[in-house]
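User: For my dataset I need records formatted as: sequence, then structure tokens, nothing else. Please produce one.
Assistant:
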Amino acid sequence: MTVRNRGALAAVAAGVAALTVAALVACANQPAGTVGAEEASTLASPAPTAASVPSVPVTAGELPAGPKIIPPVRLLIPEIDVTATVNAVGINERTNEFEVPPSVDQIGWYRYGPGLEAEAGSVVIAGHVDSATQGKGAFFRLRELDQGDTLTATGSDGEARRYRVVAREEYAKTKIPLDRYFARDGKPRLTLITCGGPFDAKARKYRDNIVVTAVPA
């Protein structure tokens, strides 16, 4: 499967479910704000020159070669009471959206990016904030995470890897720097993404994305 354009990755922004007006009251009245943005930006490799900037921030749509890829299968975040199953997901070919698991209590690892064993790059995990039919999602409280909070990602090899939050950022969905968050280079890090900001009842989606960056502890 190939990610054809930036809009496909913006699926992280769009692909987190149809939501209710009640959700706006529950979430958007507590803006996440931004902390640690400068520290998060230093984790990425230096930006390429304009002439070499690729048209999309991801590699070809096929699973990385080799037997050492270790997908995350479970995520534990004690500070916000998250214990969630992680599923390997890609891009929905029909909608061109990031294919977050339909069950809001589960979350999705972008399987065309790095696994937990990677010594460089961003391991991306996205999840629903909530749903009109299922209620609160696994990442309903993601906006509450702060610098220094810890989380544990367990891989398919059974090893639990601890991470420390260094940044929490909020972007309008049209402004999120996807090339940074889906990068295969730079320092190893875990990137958690969900919806946030005001809820557009007519479009049935949130305006923003909440992005949490964590590094190996």
